[in-house]
Amino acid sequence: MIDLYYWTTPNGHKITLFLEETGLDYRIHPVNIGKGEQFQPEFLKISPNNRIPAIVDQAPADGGAPIPIFESGAILLYLAEKSGQLIPSDPRGRNEVLQWLFWQVGGLGPMAGQNHHFSQYAPEKLPYAIERYVKETSRLYAVMDKRLADREFLAGDYSIADIASYPWVVPYQNQGQRLEDYPNLKRWFDAIAARPATQRAYARAQEINPPKPMGEAEKKVLFGQDASTVKR
């Protein structure tokens, strides 16, 4: 059994996508980040960076004590290795998947996240910041589009690299992008959206946190953190 500490963000969706795709037993523990539940002491024992997602594997392969894991990329890699699914076993295929997984974690996620912040949530619209991150998002979309010109998925077969990237493309309109400008990416996106596991994962999100505008109190919790948040 996997205990998943989750909220309905792109990084949270990564893990439900994986779990629904592989059929591993799991239970969701919602962590409402807009209400500050990520700062609860019990959660911080699992995720010291006060971010979702995090998991606790109650039945690790070594038969020992439960294993807590935070950071979405680390969770995907752990679960792929545990289940033997969605990552190749041969070194060449594995390294290809890992490169694209880390590309998402280090590039697509952070850049699209800043895009969202400055274009959707910042109290002051800063044209330079918006243009900077919209342009960088477009560059990253183009990288994916070029990569997908001669293959179905980012690393050949469907893998954790695709699962990591897909949720960050879902809000493409809020990122100032048009999928029609990236035909290979659009084909990839539509194929993943049509997968039954994807539809189940996003249905869980709708049940847990139906979409609604972010209130000012939530913005203060999410965007007002500094070193004192960690030290308190």
TrEMBL record:
Domain GST C-terminal: 90-214
UniProt protein name: Thiol:disulfide oxidoreductase
PANTHER family (UniProt xref): DISULFIDE-BOND OXIDOREDUCTASE YFCG (PTHR44051:SF19), GLUTATHIONE S-TRANSFERASE-RELATED (PTHR44051)
Residue ranges, annotated region (Disordered): 208-232
Family designation: Belongs to the GST superfamily.
Domain GST N-terminal positions: 1-87
A Pfam family recorded for this sequence: GST_N
